[in-house]
Protein: DMT family transporter
Amino acid sequence: MAVDATGADAGGASFGTVQAALGVVAFSLTFPATAWGLEGFGPWSLIAVRSVLAAAVAGSCLVVVGVPPRERSRAWGRVAPPERRHWLGLAVVGAGVVLGFPLLTTLALQTSTTAHAAVVVGLLPLTTALLSALRVGTRPSRTFWIAALAGAAAVIAFTVQQSGGALTSADAYLFAALLVCAAGYTEGGRLARVMPGWQVIGWALVLCLPLTVPMAAIALSLEPVRLTAHAVTGLLWVAIGSQFLGLVVWYRGMAAIGIPKASQLQLAQPLLTLVWSVLLLGEHLPVAAPLTAAAVLVCIAVTQRARG
Structure:
């Protein structure tokens, strides 16, 4: 059943919210998993190999799921590529969420803690909503914007307080990552209204293969690799969990409930990342975290109920 951008159908909107929330949970594990991956891979190797692995999974899905069962023996020749008018949008998705965000955040995490890097996703919901208003023409209500700004302020205040209020050398990477990721989310959410969400990220990953395959080969030949349990687990998660499956449900959720409302669910992402960082990396859980979490949940509830 078709669902419009505002999520007018109640059942479809509820399911869309669940899917977008699952995407946020998947994304919240990205920074800790990247930290694990960097224990055994160089930054360029981790970035390229994760994209190639994700593209392999996505390409297999495009071949197997994208054609009728009786035609699967000749599957590759039967896969219909997206319409030409969608290729530019897919390129933006690829540049933003397949290449740009992983590259910039991985470089930042070489010198930044996961708590400090969370300032990126603290600003990402608001930036995505703003780009959506400019690109797609969405016009959320004043209540939505007030709650979105309040939620962003709470997350930013929390993350900056945790980093001592000082900017680091990684901040240039983080703010650039914020912009390219918001652009990729906005364009992907727009495309997911006219084609299945899993095909949006699937084709974007495949489109990037001419860049990621040579990049992986060169990086692996130049950077040392140590195949530890942490490194392999981190690589597999950022490739399959964050880069593909998380984006599949995320884009489906954005198509169902609208880009602005879906983006505000990411206000919870920095706090979820902090929890994973405590559990997986042994980082300290600040006292302010529960209070910030409560404030963020209130803001999320308001944005989901406001006209978006």
